[in-house]
Amino acid sequence: MMRLVLATQNPNKVREFSELLESRVDLVALPPGLPKAPETGDTFLDNARQKAMFYAAHVGGFVVADDSGLVVPALDGEPGVFSARYAGEGADDRANNEKLIRALRAKGLRRAEARFVCALVVASERESVIEVEAWVDGHVHDEPRGENGFGYDPLFSPEGEARRFAEMSAEEKHRFSHRARAARMLLARLSSAGQATGLGWRGEPLS
């Protein structure tokens, strides 16, 4: 089984991506004590690439990093690459959601077209070897619903669904979500990339 370091120290995120990758990749979290990677890119792919290469230099192997967020055209693309810190550095999900609601209402909008985007990059410290990006279109609303999920899930409903992500089970959300789509794209490319580049911590082939 191929082994990769996931650019996070959050065990829940490791578990989620392991599920999305169908447990075909042995994902491990970053070791503690590492500095925070820069996120100064203009796109999700830029930031994912920065994080993957930054942490690969620290762990001495291949790292997979994600950057994802919400894009609302009616708000000039906000929150975009600042999704996780929309209400400021260290802001929690509630603060970010409240700022988005205020921004919608300031435009006189009860709902607006939106897109959830996820970029995944596998890289060594020297180069990026796999880059994928996926998205799901839908709408954001000015009132939260549901208790599941995280981030902007209480405000976002995917195209063709009245329910918000936060009203769905994890299995239901995976049928639509940007992360699930990006993970499937990554999984499809891992085996051929591994054979071509020696990808895989300690060189294990994808089984």
Automatic annotation (TrEMBL):
<dbReference type="GO" id="GO:0017111">
    <property type="term" value="F:ribonucleoside triphosphate phosphatase activity"/>
</dbReference>
<dbReference type="GO" id="GO:0009117">
    <property type="term" value="P:nucleotide metabolic process"/>
</dbReference>
<feature type="binding site">
    <location>
        <position position="67"/>
    </location>
    <ligand>
        <name>Mg(2+)</name>
    </ligand>
</feature>
<feature type="binding site">
    <location>
        <begin position="8"/>
        <end position="13"/>
    </location>
    <ligand>
        <name>substrate</name>
    </ligand>
</feature>
<keyword id="KW-0479">Metal-binding</keyword>
<feature type="binding site">
    <location>
        <begin position="150"/>
        <end position="153"/>
    </location>
    <ligand>
        <name>substrate</name>
    </ligand>
</feature>
<feature type="binding site">
    <location>
        <begin position="178"/>
        <end position="179"/>
    </location>
    <ligand>
        <name>substrate</name>
    </ligand>
</feature>
<keyword id="KW-0547">Nucleotide-binding</keyword>
<dbReference type="GO" id="GO:0036222">
    <property type="term" value="F:XTP diphosphatase activity"/>
</dbReference>
<dbReference type="GO" id="GO:0046872">
    <property type="term" value="F:metal ion binding"/>
</dbReference>
<comment type="subunit">
    <text>Homodimer.</text>
</comment>
<comment type="function">
    <text>Pyrophosphatase that catalyzes the hydrolysis of nucleoside triphosphates to their monophosphate derivatives, with a high preference for the non-canonical purine nucleotides XTP (xanthosine triphosphate), dITP (deoxyinosine triphosphate) and ITP. Seems to function as a house-cleaning enzyme that removes non-canonical purine nucleotides from the nucleotide pool, thus preventing their incorporation into DNA/RNA and avoiding chromosomal lesions.</text>
</comment>
<dbReference type="GO" id="GO:0005829">
    <property type="term" value="C:cytosol"/>
</dbReference>
<dbReference type="InterPro" id="IPR002637">
    <property type="entry name" value="RdgB/HAM1"/>
</dbReference>
<keyword id="KW-0460">Magnesium</keyword>
<feature type="binding site">
    <location>
        <position position="173"/>
    </location>
    <ligand>
        <name>substrate</name>
    </ligand>
</feature>
<dbReference type="Pfam" id="PF01725">
    <property type="entry name" value="Ham1p_like"/>
</dbReference>
<dbReference type="GO" id="GO:0036220">
    <property type="term" value="F:ITP diphosphatase activity"/>
</dbReference>
<feature type="binding site">
    <location>
        <position position="68"/>
    </location>
    <ligand>
        <name>substrate</name>
    </ligand>
</feature>
<dbReference type="InterPro" id="IPR020922">
    <property type="entry name" value="dITP/XTP_pyrophosphatase"/>
</dbReference>
<dbReference type="GO" id="GO:0035870">
    <property type="term" value="F:dITP diphosphatase activity"/>
</dbReference>
<comment type="similarity">
    <text>Belongs to the HAM1 NTPase family.</text>
</comment>
<dbReference type="GO" id="GO:0000166">
    <property type="term" value="F:nucleotide binding"/>
</dbReference>
<protein>
    <recommendedName>
        <fullName>dITP/XTP pyrophosphatase</fullName>
        <ecNumber>3.6.1.66</ecNumber>
    </recommendedName>
</protein>
<dbReference type="GO" id="GO:0009146">
    <property type="term" value="P:purine nucleoside triphosphate catabolic process"/>
</dbReference>
<keyword id="KW-0378">Hydrolase</keyword>
<feature type="active site" description="Proton acceptor">
    <location>
        <position position="67"/>
    </location>
</feature>
<keyword id="KW-0546">Nucleotide metabolism</keyword>
<dbReference type="InterPro" id="IPR029001">
    <property type="entry name" value="ITPase-like_fam"/>
</dbReference>
